[in-house]
Amino acid sequence: MKKSALLLLLALLAMPAYIFAQTKTKKDVIAVGEVEALERQRFEAQVKKDYAFLEKVFADDLVYTHSNGHQNNKQEYIQSIRDGKSQYEKIDVEALNVRAYNDGKAAVVNGTITITLPNKPDGSANLAHLKYVVVQVKDPKKGWQVVLWQSQKQPEAKS
Questions:
Q1: Is the full-model pTM beyond 0.70?
Q2: Any transmembrane segments, and where (predicted)?
């Protein structure tokens, strides 16, 4: 009897989350796909130094917080790529989760990536394992734009 009551209670507690998950709008669902694709394109643009693409997808009021705590605005961050301060040989997406809000007008992204940086002075590989959070908003004229980036270094995986 206690087991049945506990199961019923758990089902009732889970119901609001289930209902909420079912009430996402069609625009939210579309936004998730758009933002996921944009994340991957943005990482590729950072590696290829596609400044025109980066200018388009970073909002003018961007706050970009690196894993070391240093913050840049849009112009500073793009300039750091031009100057070679931010260098990316390769960016591998390991996990990506997008949640859309406000009828597909805003999205929060969290994920994990591995960045291959230029080799260390001794020639060994230089990898950065990061967890990150991104906030994107959909501007009616400019499309999806990154307004916030925050990352945190993760320990290297032990073999």
A1: yes
A2: none
